[in-house]
């Protein structure tokens, strides 16, 4: 079916209206009327082909999708028309490798991303959530708690799960000291989620100006990482640190904050980071990376957010504002996530 | 008591004979007649003050010590005169912190190193194993199996435990694929120990010329890390990799060799290493560091080596050859560890 969407024709064109073809729901598919779609920083990188030349055009970005089921295929068992659902970064995987078997589809070698990917099963490219509708295999659709503010749920599907997954994988317990480096789209979710898990949450930032906001979001302390006395005060005291900073930086001041045998998890840095071996060796510390979460874990995260009434802090925009939103995101001028009201596309 | 030793007076002097004062054994002390002492690369760095200016002179290096008990204090329960014993990198720690309580004295904040350290309990500096005798609290003395080639045991006390500890901490199981990067004093122990644990051992080296030696030591395969096809063939296949290379290098080709959730452990690199976040994030991989082992684990390692008849490959030297040995070590011209015959000091 023809579906209205917003996307780019090539790496230099602005985000603009276009029409795409969605498949009619097959036996296991769910057809969703999209209501809201969050804007992730990776949307900009992919739209502008900033990740090593791999972008596929035309492209409809968007992998923080919330909407209502319009229609389901005959074999769909988990969803019914009218139900509030979400779709995150993946729409398929091989389904039979070790990662898939363990519910870690995000680490499957054949993950099909929600947009900017070839769809080996159905042919063509995948198109994301800057669109009126999307058709997705039910395995990759999650149920959204009705008690939450729907429009602010969208960023949970990427930013939320990217922080929830490492907090769970590294088994954060009540009373443990957890640091979140960087207060942006990812970081603000980390503060909310870690606090709801009962951790003692420390916002680690270079900007003293962010202290008040961090505290409002639930941080118990703020560590200004450019101040030597702050670093010294917190040395060797953290059970887990999650680093959401997206650009290359020196990891060594942060590594020294970890207790023996504890881990700093990179969820933002795709660029090189400097690591001094001695900082790891002297206390058997770890640097690890983590990528979104599996589908079952994404559902668990949404249920957790429903129970604790956690959503993202969002700024709502119409579809025709996406290009402006991109420019503002590049200046970190958003608290903390732009969400597109997809109704604005239908006018 | 006055004890003959070899040491340095300052950062630029050669290793030369000197006399040092050892304490008479106190209630918990063991007085050891040293028979053999291995030469560790760190001896050179410390003798020459290459680690940030912290060296303390005069200095008697040496922390790979094997000898026989000459005398014990009245409260010593674990050792008797005549017994074959070893001393490694530590001679004391606080004894009551979390690390000490867990038998991980190497991670205590108050570890007293075997040489080049202040001794807060007894005053003065600690002096190492390039000497006829040493007095050590029994807690930091280990028993050496009599069935092993004694002179080749010495390097187990540092090089051996440095590799054994991470192999045990990361729970290497029979059949698992373990990579050892670098074939030197540390690396050759890694190959022997991992093979004895039943792992499938891969020597990872830049030098094709080392393949035959690695195989002789017990490696099942050799991966030449400068060859792209070798890296591709082994991608995402390792359960554990231990990196013994002591100089700054790019870690990224090695990180890609790890399976999901697996770890590359730095035991050699004290300098910065480059880490690309994306290589960690895409498969939730880890980079960690590890430092020698605790005393109980060092005893366990020696017992394991006794059972499996594992010792270091050594080149024996007289004490007056130490300066030449240092120069050859800087050219990697030793297979794989120099050991000083302390008898040569007594002549």
From TrEMBL, chains A, B:
Known EC number: 1.1.-.-
SMART domains, per the entry: PKS_ER
Cofactor: Zn(2+)
Domain Enoyl reductase (ER) as annotated: residue spans: 7-340
Transmembrane segments annotated in the record for this chain: none
Keyword Zinc found: yes
Keyword Oxidoreductase attributed: yes
GO molecular function: oxidoreductase activity
Record key words, sorted: Metal-binding, Oxidoreductase, Zinc
Domain of life: Bacteria
Family from the record: Belongs to the zinc-containing alcohol dehydrogenase family.
Protein name: NAD(P)-dependent alcohol dehydrogenase
